[in-house]
Amino acid sequence: MLNDYSKEDKVLLAVDCIIFGFDGEDLKILLIKRDFEPEKGKWSLIGGFLKKEENLDKAAIRILNHLTGLDNIYMEQLYTFSKVDRDPAERTISTAYYALIDIESHNNEFTNVETSKWFSLKNAPDLIFDHNRMVERAVSRLKYRTKTKPIGFELLPEKFTMLQLQNLYESILNEKLDKRNFTSKINALDILIKLKEKDMGSSKKGSYLYTFDAEKYNKKLKEGFVFKI
Amino acid sequence: MLNDYSKEDKVLLAVDCIIFGFDGEDLKILLIKRDFEPEKGKWSLIGGFLKKEENLDKAAIRILNHLTGLDNIYMEQLYTFSKVDRDPAERTISTAYYALIDIESHNNEFTNVETSKWFSLKNAPDLIFDHNRMVERAVSRLKYRTKTKPIGFELLPEKFTMLQLQNLYESILNEKLDKRNFTSKINALDILIKLKEKDMGSSKKGSYLYTFDAEKYNKKLKEGFVFKI
DNA sequence: ATTTAAAAGTGTAAAAGAAACACTTATAGA
DNA sequence: TCTATAAGTGTTTCTTTTACACTTTTAAAT
């Protein structure tokens, strides 16, 4: 006897992406203005539908790439939202993903969307459907992840100053941190490379640039190292 | 212009449940022997398909209740698994949920499944499809949750001893804990009620029984209390 | 009645980690 | 050469976590 799948309901499975960016000041999300009904003209996350021949991770990458031109971006599945009437047009389920991108280095890549815009989390507009709840959940996941995985670097340029890193953590965790304690904590992790090069833009003295040493981090991971901010 | 949903692929959306139980010794999961193809005769999580008129939480509750008779059970959505060929019979996506139940008090309720069985996590059999990976993920989520939310009590009888609680935490976290440190940590949380009653089964002296004080916990939550083991 | 055995119950000291805190240095630009 | 500005740097205090062992209670055996 074969289980009879044919009687079961099939549904549309959407993928929506919360795209986080950081401009050195504020944590931001990328939103688009919908140019189709329902909810035309309102702000929304970018999204699309899963195709039969791809898995959700692939769909998320495709959708992000198609709408923004972005490639090779950190993404993580967040949660699947399934309220019956979440999309008034049709019964859809949506699996939310969040993505972390460095705004600076991808500044010119938003080729396919005229109507996309970065918003500071604090003054982001109201979103369609259940997208506000998706963002909420993404923010709290991001807080947790940045404390336990070195993913903050995904939001920064390749080279960054200690102050930029601290500002990033302060924005994500939504709290002020002590400069000396932060610096020594980060240094104690021993997963950054301090460059000879300085960023002279922010002060007269200039401040040293760092990069994340992914190789060293992975090596330490294997030896039982636990990342913890 | 309305977005044309009709061109998009629809898929079967399954729900699979990792059911955790605790017998005072080991952390266990409830599995069933499949009596239909594919993979007939192999062990599997319980599962079913989402119906059009319900959301995933409801589906998970329905599926758990239908196959086990269990009701009013702690459940949480875990992750959505979507590998293209995860089910060889047909393209299905599966959202996994995990449930926590107290084995003792629900001992006689497994009415609808002749072939269900509790397995210690350590010597659970190999499972069909991607169910092993689901269990892995559920275990790690459970570890995290028990450290940060008072959900361990869901796995214990209404009244329990301090030692039972410690054994539970040791099983979930997979590490030995110090009795004195554990007791004072739990007492410091101040969310248990110590009963006059003793459990005389485990020793000559007998050990005091406790219950979780959900009301007090919720009141403390509102005042900013953070649960942390 | 007394002894025995077995788990329950309890506190303190040492170590580690987190938090608070302020002055010196380097350098561009005036 | 003076000035203004952010960068860079250690120590002390407090809090939290860990390590550790003896006494108490009582049922069961003698």
Automatic annotation (TrEMBL), chains A, B:
Q: Which UniProt keywords apply?
A: Hydrolase
Q: Which GO terms describe its molecular function?
A: hydrolase activity
Q: Gene3D superfamilies under this entry?
A: Nucleoside Triphosphate Pyrophosphohydrolase, Winged helix-like DNA-binding domain superfamily/Winged helix DNA-binding domain
Sequence ranges assigned to domain Nudix hydrolase in this UniProt record: 10-143
> What InterPro entries does the annotation carry?
NUDIX_hydrolase-like_dom_sf (IPR015797), NUDIX_hydrolase_dom (IPR000086), WH-like_DNA-bd_sf (IPR036388), WH_DNA-bd_sf (IPR036390), WHD_NrtR (IPR054105)
Q: Does the keyword Hydrolase apply?
A: yes
Residues annotated as transmembrane: none
Which PANTHER family does the protein's record reference?
ADP-RIBOSE PYROPHOSPHATASE (PTHR43736), SLR1690 PROTEIN (PTHR43736:SF4)
| Name the UniProt record assigns to this protein | NUDIX hydrolase
Q: Which organism is it from?
A: Algibacter amylolyticus
Q: What is the lineage of its organism?
A: Bacteria, Pseudomonadati, Bacteroidota, Flavobacteriia, Flavobacteriales
